[in-house]
Structures are given as structure tokens and as C-alpha cells.
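Batch queue: ligand-bound targets. Current item pairs a single chain with zinc ion. No template structures supplied; prediction is de novo from sequence plus SMILES. Inputs echoed for audit trail.
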Amino acid sequence: MNDIEQKIIRLIEEHQEEIIHIGRTIWEYPELGYKEFRTSQLFCDFMEKFGLKTDRNLAVTGAKAYLKDKKEGELTISLIGEMDALPIADSPYANPETKAAHCCGHNAQMAGMMGALFALADPQVQEAMDGNVVFFAVPSEEYVEMEFKHGLMDEGKIRYGGGKSELIRIGAFDDIDIAVGHHISPSVTACVANHRTNGFLSKIIRYEGLSSHAADAPERGVDALNAANLALHALQIQQESYRDQDTVRVHGYISNGGEAMNIIADTVVMEYSVRANNLPAIEDANRKFDRSIQAGAVATGCGARLVTMPGYLPTIPVKDTRAVREAVEEGAGSYPVMEEDPNMIAGGSTDFGDLSQLMPLLQFNTGGYSHELHNKQTHPTDEYLAYVVTAKIFALTAYKLLKNKAEYARELMADFTPAMTKAEYIRYMDAHNVTETISMKPVMLD
Ligand SMILES: [Zn+2]
Ligand SMILES: [Zn+2]
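Prediction returned. C-alpha cells below.
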């Protein structure tokens, strides 16, 4: 470690209580996606206290703060913190007002990202960095509360469910060259996270049949549950056609399965996700999904409406992780650093994946939380690791990318070919926002 790196660690150590306080404050007031008004305000107040300029109301609640005044042509690194919590009202850690809980640990991302400023605000540290740093508080990573988000779409406030997706669309990432992200991982202490994740499309299916007495007059009814049944069977037999390396996951549930045992179901609603780790495999699974839904409708004579919405894109790993790797090793201190399996593919999805299609993305994990994520019992057990070590790694990564005339950042950029341009990204998203109606009239005998 050089003098500056030691100074970064020392400055963050000196402010550990304030950093833990930020983590706790956000933990105690969890807010759901596109409603993170208080968290966003807290972020802006903190940044402005240090004299940083902020851009607010980006994708409803998003905000970014520039470490220095923008200069044409300089490299810009963004440290990203997700603001949103999960709708787990029955968690013992849920806030009664917002009915949300930070059981995905995003409050630690915010504490770490904001805490990094205690080091990066130092004039000597800034002097040693050839480029700018943007602190970015981003909304709505969890793909939940779709009805509320559809409302925002109808009002013209957003077009996409994911906060980063929406920020890309409105151009808020146009002046960022490299993104740095963090996530809590309860099973590790500290590690680089440079693995592929699945992307997904979101599906809502509504079958329309005709209700009738299930025992007395079944011939007068058209059972929408039969259509769903057949579709589920068709989906199941598609499984054998997927390649192992594509990690296809098709999963969902019946959110409305009819009204009563003795009434033939006239409406059945299913919600599904179609996931895979590359775009051709998502397309393939999506086509098979749509055909399976159609099969249910055609065979039973039910009507069907099939809504497809863009979810998130697969995360593409980068080749050069030196900056974040060194930062994890130095920032972890006495905590053991874990090696990530380079071939790991996560079945779940994140809108960090969308960013990784457009720019190099460096990510790391820290631990310090109990249980698995998204469990209602999940809570911080080691605030120093979750918040303070995270702040060290964020600050060190930014510094390492930009030190020595931004050598690491420039090499990372030179080695990176975007999978798509912003215009192609928006085209992809919009092309997967479709509603298809398969005859909404059940076929009846006269
Ligand atoms: Zn989550
Ligand atoms: Zn998360």
C-alpha cells in the first residue's frame, strides 16, 4: 500500500462511527423502489455538506453528486449505492410506516458509497486521482410492486421498472465511464464479485374462460384453470430443450386460480419470469414460453392475454479486476478475503447487468448480515464489516482506478467492448414491452 492508500484507510477508520450511523439511519427507515425520498434527501444533504454539487430527481428519486467540477474529456468513475428496500411487512425489522425492510442490505451499499467520501474528499487524495468520481444513489433495484410502477409509467414518470434501466434511458449514465457496485453477501466476508448473472423477462398471463356450476353444468363453462394446467405442462416439457450452460430458469405462480371449488374458473392469472444468462437463450426460452401459453388457450378455447415486460439483462464480467481486487485485499484488513469461483453464474438477476452491457462494471461483496438475503429475519450482525469495510473498498477502488494517470481505468476501458450502445439498449427494452391478445373470447358450444 502506498501513502495515499494508507491515508484512505485511516480517514475511513477515523469516521467509522459516522459511517455506521448512516447505515443505521437508512436501515431504520427502509423505503420501496421509486419512493426513496428520505434516503435520497439524506444522501444529497450529506454530499452538499462536503460542498459537492448534486443532481436530483433522476428517475424519480435518484441523485448523483460530483466530487469535482466536471472537466471535458476526463475519466469518470461512479460509485453506486442502491436505495430501495423490500416489501416484507411481517419482518421484525420492517418499518410500520413504509412496510418495508432492508433485508437485501442495500442500506450497506449506501453507507459504504457515502462513507467513501470521508477519504475521497481529502485534497491530497483528490490530487492523486486523474479523473472524477460520481457518487450515485440509485432507485428501485428490486423487481416488486409492479402495479405501483405501472402507475408511474402511465403518468409518464418512468418507462422501465429498474432504476438503473431508467437512469440509462434518461442519459444519467452518459457521463460515466466505469461503474463500481457492491452487494451484501451474508456467506462471505469480502470478495470480488465478477460473475455472470441471469437476465430475465417478466410475464403476466391472464386466461379468460366462462364460469358455471362445476358439477351441475360443466358443459356450460370453459375452465380457465385447464388452460393454465396445460400451459404449465407445456412449460415443463420445454425444460429438456434448454442447454445447461444457458442456466435457463422459468418460474412463477398462479396469482389468481379461480373463485371456488364448485365454480368453473373464468379467470386465471399467472406471473412468471423467464431467465437465462445470455440474450439468445432468453429469446429462445421466451418463444417457448409464449407458445406454451398459446397451447393452453388453443386447446381449451380460452381467451388469453400475454403481457411481456423487460426485466434485467445478464451481467457480463470484465476481464481486468485489478483495481477492485487490490481494494478488497487491502480494505478487508483482518477479515479473510474469499476467492470467487470464476465460472459461477448466478441464477438471479440485477439491473447492474444492464449497466454491464454498456460500460465496465466492477463489483464486490462484503458480509456482516445474517441469514440469506430476502429472508424476513436478515439483519446486520457486523456493522463494521458491512458499512465501514465497504466504504474502504469503495474509496480504494476509485483511487486505484484513477491513480498513476488513471492507468487501471484506461486499461480497463481499452479492454472493454460494450455489448450494446445506449440506443440499442433502449430498442431492446422497448421491443420486449408487448401485450399480445390471443382471442379474448372463450369458444362456446351454442
Ligand atoms: Zn434483493
Ligand atoms: Zn439487492
